[in-house]
């Protein structure tokens, strides 16, 4: 009766021996920790206008959406956010999902089938990898952010229906894909390009419209964009933006859209307010750039070879998973939260701290956090 539990326990012990145990750490509201681990890049999660918008929708609609989008879950708040997202991203239509993970699964399944070739960047996020695996399509893993390698792969599969899947700013190392060059390759071969813009939305591009917009690809007919609403917009949920026929197809057939309860109206309204703030937040984006430069200088002075970030994600190498875990714990004990990335979350098998910058952190707290990170280094 307990054999399956014993098997899980053995696996847990093996992970612990390898330094790969993960722990839930509930935080109190308003804790004093300097947050360089979360993804609230523009500091909008607690902005008064965002909170008030969410509270107003909470009073108007209640706690949840009470149903899927096609039953009772679509509210005026959802429709307004989708209109605003489509305009901001520069595509004819946008659909809101309850998470970025489900948006990625839904987008890939809509674009690919048994006869499709999916070419997926080696460093893609788990949601993109899982979407590819579950699509039923043939999947080829491409060298990371390499237009020449992509061209060779496409040339090796003439006449195939191909979708190239990539991130704009990659979630682990924070580097930026050469989207314009990659698109030139996919366009020349008649392939589609799906871009997860999660870590660039709000941070890069005109009015913070993301990495696709920064590359001049907004509204391109052979580009589809996904993103989360949980990072620079400080809320929760996901979005797929693209042409009208794709939206119609997703509404009619997309399982992660049809069968999932809609995101709460309060969250959707809060995200809508955050979007309006983000579009005019050039000052916050400039501060992120300043802080990224300061972080790189401080880490270089401490002996780390941290690359300059494309947006607000920085990767700091650690000697191994146990060292990364201890480093993050020491920082936490001194009031600084940092991300700790170990296999299998890291595509190259290396461990590192991931620092995510936040324009809402006070200057003195930010400077202290950099000192703590350097002083706690293994």
Walk me through what this model shows.
The chain is of the alpha/beta class and 378 residues long. Helices cover 44% and strands 15% of the residues. It has 15 helices and 11 strands. It has helices at 3-17, 48-61, 69-73, 76-89, 100-111, 126-134, 147-155, 179-188, 211-214, 244-253, 255-258, 265-279, 282-301, 321-333, 363-375; strands spanning 34-36, 93-97, 116-121, 138-142, 161-167, 192-196, 223-228, 238-242, 313-317, 336-341, 352-356. Strands 2-8-7-6-5-3-4 form a 7-stranded mixed sheet, sandwiched between helices. The longest helix has 20 residues, at 282-301. The radius of gyration is 21 Å and the shape is globular. The N and C termini lie far apart (44 Å). The mean pLDDT is 95.
**What class would the helix/strand composition place it in?**
alpha/beta
Tell me the total number of β-strands. Answer: 11
Distance from first to last alpha carbon = 44 Å
Can you give the mean pLDDT? 95
Shape: globular
Helix content: 40-55%
Radius of gyration: 21 Å
- Number of separate helices: 15
Could you name the ranges where pLDDT drops below 50 across 5 or more consecutive residues?
none
Largest sheet: 7 strands, mixed
In which order are the strands of the major sheet placed? 2-8-7-6-5-3-4
């Amino acid at each position: 009766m307990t054999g399956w539990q014993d098997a899980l326990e053995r696996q847990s012990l093996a992970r612990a021996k390898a330094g790969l145990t993960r722990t839930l750490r509930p935080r109190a509201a308003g804790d004093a920790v300097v947050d360089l681990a979360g993804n609230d890049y523009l500091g909008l999660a607690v902005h008064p206008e965002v909170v008030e918008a969410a509270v107003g929708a909470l009073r108007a609609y209640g706690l949840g959406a009470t149903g899927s989008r096609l039953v009772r879950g679509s509210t005026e708040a959802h429709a307004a956010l989708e209109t605003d997202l489509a305009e901001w991203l520069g595509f004819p239509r946008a659909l809101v999902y309850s998470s970025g993970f489900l948006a990625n699964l839904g987008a890939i399944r809509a674009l690919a089938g048994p006869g499709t070739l999916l070419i997926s960047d080696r460093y893609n996020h788990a949601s993109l990898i899982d979407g590819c695996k579950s699509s039923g399509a043939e999947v080829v893993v491409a060298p990371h952010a390499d237009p020449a390698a992509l061209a060779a792969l496409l040339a090796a599969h003439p006449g195939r229906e191909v979708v190239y899947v990539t991130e704009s700013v990659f979630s682990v190392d924070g580097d930026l894909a050469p989207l314009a060059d990659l698109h030139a390759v996919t366009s020349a071969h008649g392939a589609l390009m799906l871009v997860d813009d999660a870590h660039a939305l709000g941070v890069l591009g005109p009015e913070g419209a993301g990495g696709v917009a920064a590359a001049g690809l907004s509204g391109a007919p052979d580009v589809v964009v996904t993103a989360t609403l949980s990072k620079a917009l400080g809320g929760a949920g996901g979005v797929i933006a693209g042409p009208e026929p794709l939206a119609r197809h997703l509404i009619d057939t997309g399982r992660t859209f049809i069968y999932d309860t809609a995101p709460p109206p309060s969250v959707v309204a809060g995200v809508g307010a955050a979007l309006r703030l983000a579009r005019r937040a050039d000052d916050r984006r400039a501060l992120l750039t300043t802080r990224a430069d300061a972080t790189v200088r401080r880490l270089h002075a401490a002996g780390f070879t941290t690359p300059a970030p494309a947006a607000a994600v920085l990767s700091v190498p650690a000697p191994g998973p146990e060292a990364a875990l201890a480093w993050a714990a020491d920082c936490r004990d001194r009031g600084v939260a940092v991300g700790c990335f170990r296999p299998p979350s890291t595509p190259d098998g290396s461990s590192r701290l991931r620092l995510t910058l936040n324009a809402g952190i006070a200057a003195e707290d930010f400077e202290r956090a950099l000192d703590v990170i350097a002083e706690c280094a293994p």
